[in-house]
Fold:
Amino acid sequence: MKKALVKILCVITVLSLMCPLIVFADSVPATINISGTSVANPGEDAVVVIDVTINAGFDIQGIQVEFDLSENFPKLKRTDIIKNNTGWENVAVNGKSLLGVGNIIETQTQLVAKITFGVPEDAEAGTEYVFTPTTTIVANASQEFETKLNVDALKIVVPGEKPVEDVQKPETKPDETDKETDISISQDKNNTPSDGNSVGEKVELEKENTIENKAEEAKPWKNPFFDVKEKDWFYESVKYVYDNELMSGVGFNEFDPGSSLTRGMLVTILYRFEGSPSSMTYGFSDVPRTEWYTKSVDWAASTGIVNGVGDNRFAPDEPVTREQITVIFYNYSKYKKMDLTAKSDLSSFADSEKISSWATTAFEWAVSSGLISGKDNSMLDPSGKATRAETSAIIKRYAEKMVK
Structure:
Protein backbone atom coordinates (compact mmCIF):
# COMPACT_ATOMS: atom_id res chain seq x y z
CA MET A 1 0.00 0.00 0.00
CA LYS A 2 1.37 3.40 -0.99
CA LYS A 3 -1.23 5.74 0.39
CA ALA A 4 0.12 7.90 3.21
CA LEU A 5 -1.71 7.78 6.52
CA VAL A 6 -2.80 11.05 8.12
CA LYS A 7 -3.57 11.99 11.73
CA ILE A 8 -4.05 9.00 14.02
CA LEU A 9 -5.14 6.10 11.84
CA CYS A 10 -6.30 2.55 12.32
CA VAL A 11 -5.42 0.65 9.14
CA ILE A 12 -6.81 -2.63 7.94
CA THR A 13 -4.67 -4.27 5.28
CA VAL A 14 -5.24 -7.72 3.87
CA LEU A 15 -2.70 -8.97 1.38
CA SER A 16 -2.57 -11.95 -0.95
CA LEU A 17 -1.33 -12.80 -4.45
CA MET A 18 -4.20 -12.15 -6.84
CA CYS A 19 -5.28 -11.15 -10.35
CA PRO A 20 -6.46 -7.66 -11.43
CA LEU A 21 -9.48 -6.44 -9.51
CA ILE A 22 -12.67 -5.43 -11.30
CA VAL A 23 -15.19 -3.44 -9.27
CA PHE A 24 -18.72 -4.00 -10.58
CA ALA A 25 -21.22 -1.17 -10.35
CA ASP A 26 -23.80 -3.28 -8.51
CA SER A 27 -21.43 -4.95 -6.06
CA VAL A 28 -18.51 -4.22 -3.77
CA PRO A 29 -15.32 -6.20 -3.11
CA ALA A 30 -15.66 -5.85 0.64
CA THR A 31 -17.95 -4.48 3.32
CA ILE A 32 -16.85 -2.82 6.53
CA ASN A 33 -18.89 -2.60 9.72
CA ILE A 34 -17.83 -0.49 12.68
CA SER A 35 -19.54 -1.08 16.01
CA GLY A 36 -18.67 -0.77 19.67
CA THR A 37 -19.32 0.90 22.97
CA SER A 38 -21.70 3.85 22.86
CA VAL A 39 -21.58 4.80 26.56
CA ALA A 40 -18.58 4.31 28.88
CA ASN A 41 -18.13 5.50 32.46
CA PRO A 42 -14.83 6.95 33.69
CA GLY A 43 -12.33 4.14 34.31
CA GLU A 44 -14.19 1.69 32.08
CA ASP A 45 -13.11 0.18 28.77
CA ALA A 46 -14.41 1.46 25.45
CA VAL A 47 -14.41 -1.06 22.59
CA VAL A 48 -14.33 -0.57 18.82
CA VAL A 49 -15.02 -3.63 16.67
CA ILE A 50 -13.88 -3.61 13.02
CA ASP A 51 -15.62 -6.24 10.90
CA VAL A 52 -14.27 -6.76 7.37
CA THR A 53 -16.13 -9.12 5.02
CA ILE A 54 -14.32 -9.91 1.78
CA ASN A 55 -16.94 -10.83 -0.79
CA ALA A 56 -16.68 -13.73 -3.22
CA GLY A 57 -15.85 -13.03 -6.87
CA PHE A 58 -13.16 -10.41 -6.28
CA ASP A 59 -9.43 -10.99 -6.57
CA ILE A 60 -8.25 -8.75 -3.77
CA GLN A 61 -4.60 -8.21 -2.89
CA GLY A 62 -5.17 -5.69 -0.15
CA ILE A 63 -7.72 -3.65 1.74
CA GLN A 64 -6.83 -0.56 3.68
CA VAL A 65 -9.40 1.22 5.80
CA GLU A 66 -8.43 4.52 7.38
CA PHE A 67 -9.87 6.13 10.49
CA ASP A 68 -9.52 9.45 12.25
CA LEU A 69 -9.66 9.54 16.03
CA SER A 70 -10.74 12.68 17.84
CA GLU A 71 -7.83 14.45 19.55
CA ASN A 72 -9.09 13.49 23.02
CA PHE A 73 -9.49 9.79 22.18
CA PRO A 74 -8.42 7.57 25.12
CA LYS A 75 -5.25 5.49 25.09
CA LEU A 76 -5.07 2.03 23.58
CA LYS A 77 -5.21 -0.82 26.14
CA ARG A 78 -5.20 -3.97 24.01
CA THR A 79 -6.12 -5.44 20.64
CA ASP A 80 -7.59 -8.82 19.70
CA ILE A 81 -8.45 -10.80 16.58
CA ILE A 82 -11.83 -12.30 17.49
CA LYS A 83 -12.69 -13.91 14.15
CA ASN A 84 -10.60 -14.99 11.18
CA ASN A 85 -11.88 -17.54 8.66
CA THR A 86 -9.67 -16.30 5.84
CA GLY A 87 -7.29 -19.23 6.22
CA TRP A 88 -4.43 -16.81 6.69
CA GLU A 89 -2.05 -17.82 9.47
CA ASN A 90 -0.11 -14.56 9.57
CA VAL A 91 -2.67 -12.17 11.05
CA ALA A 92 -1.80 -9.53 13.64
CA VAL A 93 -3.32 -6.34 15.04
CA ASN A 94 -1.71 -3.41 16.83
CA GLY A 95 -2.70 0.11 17.70
CA LYS A 96 -2.72 1.34 14.10
CA SER A 97 -3.16 -1.62 11.79
CA LEU A 98 -4.63 -5.04 11.21
CA LEU A 99 -2.52 -7.17 8.88
CA GLY A 100 -3.37 -10.46 7.21
CA VAL A 101 -1.17 -12.30 4.72
CA GLY A 102 -1.95 -15.60 3.04
CA ASN A 103 -3.15 -17.43 -0.03
CA ILE A 104 -5.80 -16.45 -2.57
CA ILE A 105 -9.34 -16.32 -1.17
CA GLU A 106 -12.06 -17.66 -3.45
CA THR A 107 -15.09 -17.55 -1.12
CA GLN A 108 -16.58 -14.93 1.18
CA THR A 109 -14.44 -14.56 4.28
CA GLN A 110 -14.46 -12.46 7.42
CA LEU A 111 -11.84 -10.80 9.58
CA VAL A 112 -12.91 -9.15 12.84
CA ALA A 113 -10.69 -7.16 15.19
CA LYS A 114 -11.48 -5.65 18.58
CA ILE A 115 -9.61 -2.60 19.81
CA THR A 116 -9.98 -1.69 23.49
CA PHE A 117 -9.36 1.80 24.83
CA GLY A 118 -9.35 2.88 28.47
CA VAL A 119 -11.55 5.84 29.42
CA PRO A 120 -9.61 7.98 31.96
CA GLU A 121 -10.74 7.96 35.59
CA ASP A 122 -11.04 11.76 35.50
CA ALA A 123 -13.10 11.91 32.28
CA GLU A 124 -15.77 14.59 32.61
CA ALA A 125 -19.47 13.81 32.20
CA GLY A 126 -20.64 14.51 28.66
CA THR A 127 -17.21 13.95 27.10
CA GLU A 128 -17.42 12.54 23.57
CA TYR A 129 -14.82 10.40 21.82
CA VAL A 130 -15.29 10.04 18.05
CA PHE A 131 -13.95 7.21 15.87
CA THR A 132 -14.47 8.25 12.24
CA PRO A 133 -13.95 6.01 9.17
CA THR A 134 -12.62 8.08 6.25
CA THR A 135 -11.57 6.10 3.16
CA THR A 136 -11.09 2.58 1.88
CA ILE A 137 -8.35 1.51 -0.53
CA VAL A 138 -8.84 -1.78 -2.37
CA ALA A 139 -5.88 -3.07 -4.34
CA ASN A 140 -4.38 -6.01 -6.21
CA ALA A 141 -0.99 -6.61 -7.76
CA SER A 142 -1.36 -3.92 -10.42
CA GLN A 143 -4.08 -1.45 -9.41
CA GLU A 144 -5.58 0.50 -6.53
CA PHE A 145 -9.21 1.55 -6.21
CA GLU A 146 -10.45 4.10 -3.72
CA THR A 147 -14.04 3.37 -2.74
CA LYS A 148 -16.57 5.07 -0.55
CA LEU A 149 -16.95 3.70 2.95
CA ASN A 150 -20.62 3.91 3.93
CA VAL A 151 -20.08 3.62 7.67
CA ASP A 152 -21.09 6.20 10.25
CA ALA A 153 -18.68 7.54 12.82
CA LEU A 154 -18.74 5.77 16.17
CA LYS A 155 -19.32 8.11 19.09
CA ILE A 156 -18.46 7.04 22.65
CA VAL A 157 -20.00 9.23 25.35
CA VAL A 158 -19.25 9.52 29.07
CA PRO A 159 -22.74 9.61 30.71
CA GLY A 160 -24.03 12.69 32.48
CA GLU A 161 -24.45 16.33 31.55
CA LYS A 162 -21.52 18.46 30.53
CA PRO A 163 -20.64 21.09 33.14
CA VAL A 164 -22.17 24.43 32.16
CA GLU A 165 -20.09 27.57 32.57
CA ASP A 166 -21.60 30.14 34.89
CA VAL A 167 -22.43 32.96 32.51
CA GLN A 168 -23.64 36.14 34.19
CA LYS A 169 -26.90 37.41 32.70
CA PRO A 170 -27.03 41.05 31.64
CA GLU A 171 -28.64 43.28 34.24
CA THR A 172 -32.29 44.11 33.44
CA LYS A 173 -33.26 47.76 33.62
CA PRO A 174 -36.11 48.64 36.01
CA ASP A 175 -38.42 49.78 33.21
CA GLU A 176 -37.96 46.59 31.19
CA THR A 177 -40.35 43.68 31.64
CA ASP A 178 -39.99 40.06 30.53
CA LYS A 179 -43.43 39.72 29.02
CA GLU A 180 -43.14 35.94 28.60
CA THR A 181 -42.55 35.28 32.26
CA ASP A 182 -44.46 38.14 33.91
CA ILE A 183 -47.75 38.08 32.03
CA SER A 184 -50.04 35.28 33.21
CA ILE A 185 -52.88 33.82 31.15
CA SER A 186 -56.13 35.39 32.23
CA GLN A 187 -58.97 32.93 32.63
CA ASP A 188 -62.69 33.33 33.04
CA LYS A 189 -64.81 31.21 35.36
CA ASN A 190 -65.14 28.56 32.62
CA ASN A 191 -61.36 27.95 32.80
CA THR A 192 -60.81 29.41 29.32
CA PRO A 193 -57.64 31.45 28.66
CA SER A 194 -57.90 34.79 26.92
CA ASP A 195 -56.66 33.29 23.62
CA GLY A 196 -59.88 31.30 23.29
CA ASN A 197 -58.38 27.81 23.74
CA SER A 198 -59.28 25.68 26.73
CA VAL A 199 -56.53 24.55 29.08
CA GLY A 200 -57.20 20.92 28.08
CA GLU A 201 -56.82 21.77 24.39
CA LYS A 202 -53.52 23.49 25.05
CA VAL A 203 -52.13 20.50 26.96
CA GLU A 204 -53.16 18.14 24.15
CA LEU A 205 -51.46 20.35 21.59
CA GLU A 206 -48.27 20.31 23.67
CA LYS A 207 -48.44 16.52 23.87
CA GLU A 208 -48.87 16.23 20.10
CA ASN A 209 -45.94 18.55 19.48
CA THR A 210 -43.78 16.52 21.87
CA ILE A 211 -44.63 13.26 20.07
CA GLU A 212 -43.94 14.84 16.67
CA ASN A 213 -40.60 16.19 17.87
CA LYS A 214 -39.58 12.79 19.21
CA ALA A 215 -40.52 11.15 15.92
CA GLU A 216 -38.41 13.68 14.04
CA GLU A 217 -35.47 13.05 16.38
CA ALA A 218 -35.66 9.24 15.98
CA LYS A 219 -32.50 7.86 14.43
CA PRO A 220 -31.75 4.57 12.65
CA TRP A 221 -30.73 1.69 14.91
CA LYS A 222 -27.05 1.74 15.77
CA ASN A 223 -26.38 -1.98 15.52
CA PRO A 224 -23.81 -2.93 18.21
CA PHE A 225 -23.31 -6.50 16.97
CA PHE A 226 -20.74 -7.40 14.31
CA ASP A 227 -22.43 -10.78 13.70
CA VAL A 228 -25.92 -9.38 13.00
CA LYS A 229 -26.23 -8.01 9.46
CA GLU A 230 -29.13 -6.10 7.93
CA LYS A 231 -29.57 -8.88 5.36
CA ASP A 232 -30.01 -11.57 8.06
CA TRP A 233 -33.54 -12.94 8.56
CA PHE A 234 -33.23 -12.31 12.32
CA TYR A 235 -32.00 -8.69 12.03
CA GLU A 236 -35.32 -7.03 12.97
CA SER A 237 -35.92 -9.56 15.76
CA VAL A 238 -32.53 -8.90 17.33
CA LYS A 239 -33.14 -5.17 17.01
CA TYR A 240 -36.46 -5.59 18.83
CA VAL A 241 -35.14 -7.62 21.78
CA TYR A 242 -32.09 -5.38 22.12
CA ASP A 243 -34.03 -2.11 21.98
CA ASN A 244 -36.52 -3.41 24.54
CA GLU A 245 -33.71 -4.63 26.84
CA LEU A 246 -34.92 -8.24 26.66
CA MET A 247 -31.70 -9.71 25.25
CA SER A 248 -28.17 -8.38 25.07
CA GLY A 249 -24.95 -9.65 23.56
CA VAL A 250 -22.60 -12.34 24.84
CA GLY A 251 -19.61 -9.98 25.01
CA PHE A 252 -17.20 -8.25 22.62
CA ASN A 253 -20.14 -6.81 20.63
CA GLU A 254 -21.25 -10.30 19.66
CA PHE A 255 -24.87 -11.52 19.70
CA ASP A 256 -23.97 -15.10 18.73
CA PRO A 257 -27.28 -15.76 16.91
CA GLY A 258 -26.57 -19.42 16.14
CA SER A 259 -25.73 -20.54 19.66
CA SER A 260 -28.20 -22.34 21.91
CA LEU A 261 -30.27 -20.44 24.45
CA THR A 262 -30.18 -21.82 27.99
CA ARG A 263 -33.19 -22.34 30.25
CA GLY A 264 -31.88 -19.66 32.59
CA MET A 265 -31.64 -17.17 29.72
CA LEU A 266 -35.19 -17.88 28.57
CA VAL A 267 -36.88 -17.28 31.92
CA THR A 268 -34.77 -14.14 32.36
CA ILE A 269 -36.09 -12.80 29.03
CA LEU A 270 -39.70 -13.46 30.10
CA TYR A 271 -39.00 -11.94 33.53
CA ARG A 272 -37.81 -8.75 31.83
CA PHE A 273 -40.76 -8.89 29.42
CA GLU A 274 -43.05 -8.93 32.48
CA GLY A 275 -41.29 -5.92 33.99
CA SER A 276 -39.05 -7.75 36.51
CA PRO A 277 -41.74 -8.23 39.21
CA SER A 278 -40.99 -9.27 42.79
CA SER A 279 -41.81 -12.88 43.73
CA MET A 280 -41.45 -15.46 46.43
CA THR A 281 -38.31 -17.58 46.75
CA TYR A 282 -38.80 -20.97 45.13
CA GLY A 283 -35.65 -22.92 45.95
CA PHE A 284 -34.48 -25.28 43.19
CA SER A 285 -31.46 -27.21 44.42
CA ASP A 286 -29.36 -26.18 41.39
CA VAL A 287 -30.25 -22.48 41.46
CA PRO A 288 -27.90 -20.64 43.88
CA ARG A 289 -29.26 -17.49 45.50
CA THR A 290 -26.56 -15.27 43.98
CA GLU A 291 -26.82 -16.09 40.26
CA TRP A 292 -27.97 -13.55 37.64
CA TYR A 293 -30.98 -15.74 36.78
CA THR A 294 -32.10 -16.51 40.38
CA LYS A 295 -34.92 -13.94 40.63
CA SER A 296 -36.15 -14.88 37.16
CA VAL A 297 -36.33 -18.59 38.01
CA ASP A 298 -38.07 -17.83 41.34
CA TRP A 299 -40.70 -15.76 39.54
CA ALA A 300 -41.25 -18.27 36.71
CA ALA A 301 -41.54 -21.22 39.12
CA SER A 302 -43.78 -19.46 41.65
CA THR A 303 -46.22 -18.45 38.89
CA GLY A 304 -46.36 -21.93 37.34
CA ILE A 305 -44.63 -20.91 34.12
CA VAL A 306 -41.89 -23.51 34.68
CA ASN A 307 -41.88 -26.71 36.72
CA GLY A 308 -38.25 -27.83 36.57
CA VAL A 309 -36.83 -31.02 35.13
CA GLY A 310 -37.40 -33.28 38.15
CA ASP A 311 -35.63 -34.00 41.45
CA ASN A 312 -36.13 -30.36 42.46
CA ARG A 313 -33.78 -29.27 39.65
CA PHE A 314 -34.26 -26.48 37.11
CA ALA A 315 -31.15 -27.09 34.96
CA PRO A 316 -30.56 -23.37 34.24
CA ASP A 317 -27.45 -23.94 32.11
CA GLU A 318 -28.93 -26.62 29.85
CA PRO A 319 -29.99 -25.59 26.32
CA VAL A 320 -33.73 -25.07 26.00
CA THR A 321 -35.43 -27.23 23.36
CA ARG A 322 -38.05 -26.03 20.90
CA GLU A 323 -40.80 -27.94 22.71
CA GLN A 324 -39.69 -26.57 26.08
CA ILE A 325 -39.76 -23.00 24.82
CA THR A 326 -43.21 -23.62 23.30
CA VAL A 327 -44.59 -24.96 26.61
CA ILE A 328 -43.03 -22.09 28.59
CA PHE A 329 -44.65 -19.48 26.34
CA TYR A 330 -47.95 -21.40 26.57
CA ASN A 331 -47.72 -21.36 30.39
CA TYR A 332 -46.81 -17.68 30.38
CA SER A 333 -49.90 -16.93 28.27
CA LYS A 334 -52.00 -18.96 30.71
CA TYR A 335 -50.52 -16.89 33.56
CA LYS A 336 -51.52 -13.74 31.63
CA LYS A 337 -55.05 -15.17 31.23
CA MET A 338 -54.93 -15.11 27.44
CA ASP A 339 -57.24 -17.05 25.15
CA LEU A 340 -55.60 -20.44 24.53
CA THR A 341 -58.42 -22.14 22.61
CA ALA A 342 -56.83 -21.81 19.16
CA LYS A 343 -55.52 -25.14 17.85
CA SER A 344 -53.89 -26.41 14.67
CA ASP A 345 -53.70 -29.90 13.27
CA LEU A 346 -50.03 -30.90 13.51
CA SER A 347 -50.28 -33.95 11.25
CA SER A 348 -48.94 -31.97 8.26
CA PHE A 349 -45.55 -31.79 9.97
CA ALA A 350 -43.34 -34.77 9.18
CA ASP A 351 -42.09 -35.13 12.77
CA SER A 352 -45.32 -34.35 14.67
CA GLU A 353 -45.25 -37.82 16.27
CA LYS A 354 -41.96 -36.93 17.94
CA ILE A 355 -43.58 -34.19 20.04
CA SER A 356 -43.73 -35.16 23.71
CA SER A 357 -47.24 -35.71 25.06
CA TRP A 358 -46.80 -32.89 27.59
CA ALA A 359 -45.97 -30.46 24.75
CA THR A 360 -48.66 -31.37 22.18
CA THR A 361 -51.33 -28.91 23.34
CA ALA A 362 -48.78 -26.09 23.53
CA PHE A 363 -47.57 -26.82 19.98
CA GLU A 364 -51.15 -26.89 18.63
CA TRP A 365 -51.74 -23.46 20.15
CA ALA A 366 -48.36 -22.00 19.14
CA VAL A 367 -48.64 -23.11 15.49
CA SER A 368 -52.23 -21.86 15.25
CA SER A 369 -51.21 -18.51 16.76
CA GLY A 370 -48.29 -18.09 14.35
CA LEU A 371 -45.80 -18.13 17.21
CA ILE A 372 -43.98 -21.26 16.04
CA SER A 373 -43.46 -22.25 12.42
CA GLY A 374 -41.95 -25.31 10.84
CA LYS A 375 -38.36 -25.58 9.70
CA ASP A 376 -37.14 -27.02 6.39
CA ASN A 377 -38.95 -30.09 5.04
CA SER A 378 -42.03 -29.40 7.21
CA MET A 379 -40.24 -30.24 10.44
CA LEU A 380 -41.12 -28.83 13.87
CA ASP A 381 -37.93 -30.28 15.37
CA PRO A 382 -39.39 -30.44 18.90
CA SER A 383 -36.24 -31.81 20.52
CA GLY A 384 -33.92 -29.46 18.64
CA LYS A 385 -32.09 -26.72 20.50
CA ALA A 386 -33.62 -23.24 20.25
CA THR A 387 -31.03 -20.72 19.05
CA ARG A 388 -30.71 -17.14 20.24
CA ALA A 389 -31.82 -15.92 16.80
CA GLU A 390 -34.90 -18.18 16.80
CA THR A 391 -35.79 -17.06 20.31
CA SER A 392 -35.55 -13.38 19.38
CA ALA A 393 -37.95 -14.05 16.48
CA ILE A 394 -40.43 -15.87 18.76
CA ILE A 395 -40.35 -13.02 21.28
CA LYS A 396 -40.98 -10.41 18.58
CA ARG A 397 -43.88 -12.45 17.15
CA TYR A 398 -45.33 -12.94 20.61
CA ALA A 399 -45.22 -9.20 21.33
CA GLU A 400 -46.87 -8.37 17.99
CA LYS A 401 -49.48 -11.13 17.84
CA MET A 402 -50.38 -11.93 21.43
CA VAL A 403 -49.84 -8.83 23.55
CA LYS A 404 -52.63 -6.31 23.21
Q: What stands out?
A: The chain has eight helices and eleven strands.
